[in-house]
Amino acid sequence: MATTETHGMPHPGSTTRHHVSLAETATAHNYAPLPVVLASGQGAWVTDVEGRRYLDCLAGYSALNFGHAHPRLTAAAQEQLARLTLTSRAFHNDRLGPFCRDLADLAGMDLVLPMNTGAEAVETAIKVARKWGADRKGVAPDRANIIVADGNFHGRTTTIVSFSTDPVARDGFGPFTPGFRSVPYGDSAALEAAVDEDTVAVLLEPIQGEAGVVIPPPGYLQAVREVCSRKNVLFLADEIQSGLGRTGTTFACDAEGVTPDVYILGKALGGGIVPVSAVVSRHDVLGVIRPGSHGSTFGGNPLAAAVGHAVVELLRSGEYQDRAAALGERLRGRLEDLTGRGVVAVRSRGLWAGIDLDPALTTGRQACLRLLDHGVLAKDTHGSTLRLAPPLIIEPGQLDWMCDQLGEVLAQAGT
């Protein structure tokens, strides 16, 4: 598919205006989307209601690691749609066991607790850690605390925003859930100093996504692992965005040879088709959960399990991990070439990049709007930072074309 066929949207057409107006009128304004209305997608490409095509370089915040309408994933979904979609966990279904067995095997763990959204999985991991602290570590009732990191993003539930350091996420949503201590990200000494006898877990993103693809210093994850092991504290790794191939390894923790006590997974696990999340751990950790102590009507439903199992199968060979690693080197090189030409700094791992733009030239939002006109979909964060997370199936030529468009946008901003 030739990249030169893609054209942006200099002036929204009437159909676009209609859909944007309808959404603005009928939906709560919890997002500020770009003025494009998407109607279909295939691979790395999407098409809007005006028939214009765009290279999707956000990939649903990593939910679309395998692109739009991946044939093996859509086939799994379509087959299951015709058979059985929901049973609730009041009964067994024939898709859940194979999915959980193979996901646990992929992670080198024993058990899977399936949920739906990433925030649900984080909440589940928090509950598991507190229950583990009570049952296994002997922490007194209502005394458990969990160490988190400044700049974190783990979701938007009331408990999760309680330990966010982002004022937009917190303001007006109190009172907040107690039991969390935040320390500077990347500072293992500060983390260890915050641990006491009532600490049950450390909850971290191996790479902070919403913060702008912030990569911790080398050795940080190893230091966290050592502190947690020595202090008898669970290491909860939120790999919702970073996991399942995005960073060039199955999990971002793999880059330092670190195995956490708990993997928190989501986004790509549902193949961009259905919401699927999971907490994956050992018997001694997830064994604290008993019937009635946690659950979800849709968690582990047959449709989700069928799609999730197909995702696990795609990752078994390592093809997508290797592809993300190789293309990630290409992406880093192209982006670093833009340093001094509108780019201040680049942080990347695999096919995931945070690009700090010169605020004197453009904001991240303005850059995204200009990229839209050039046929590229991207997302800004924190003012002047641009995030890129193209699907792992993107072709080298498409990746180069994306970087060319960014270069043109920055050149135009400087004139």
Percent of residues in helices comes to: 25-40%
Class computed from helices, strands and strand pairing: alpha/beta
Give me the strand/helix succession.
HEEEHHEHEHHEHEHEEEHHHEEHEEEH
What does the average pLDDT come to? Answer: 96
Q: Which value, in Å, is the CA radius of gyration?
A: 21 Å
How far is it from the N-terminal to the C-terminal residue, by CA? 32 Å
Largest sheet: 7 strands, mixed
Strand order of the largest sheet: 4-10-9-8-7-5-6
Could you tell me the strand content as a percent range? 15-25%
Uncertain runs: 1-10
Q: How many strands?
A: 15
Q: Given the C-alpha coordinates, what overall shape results?
A: globular
SS summary, helix count: 13
Describe this structure in words.
With 415 residues, the protein is an alpha/beta fold. It has 13 helices and 15 strands. The chain has helices spanning 14-26, 71-81, 96-107, 118-137, 158-162, 167-170, 188-194, 220-231, 283-286, 302-316, 319-336, 364-373, 396-413; strands spanning 38-42, 45-48, 53-56, 111-115, 145-149, 180-183, 199-204, 234-238, 262-265, 277-281, 343-348, 353-357, 376-377, 379-381, 385-388. It has a 7-stranded mixed beta sheet, with helices on both faces. Strand 1 (38-42) and strand 2 (45-48) form a beta hairpin. Helix 2 (71-81) runs antiparallel to helix 10. The radius of gyration is 21 Å and the shape is globular. The two termini are 32 Å apart.
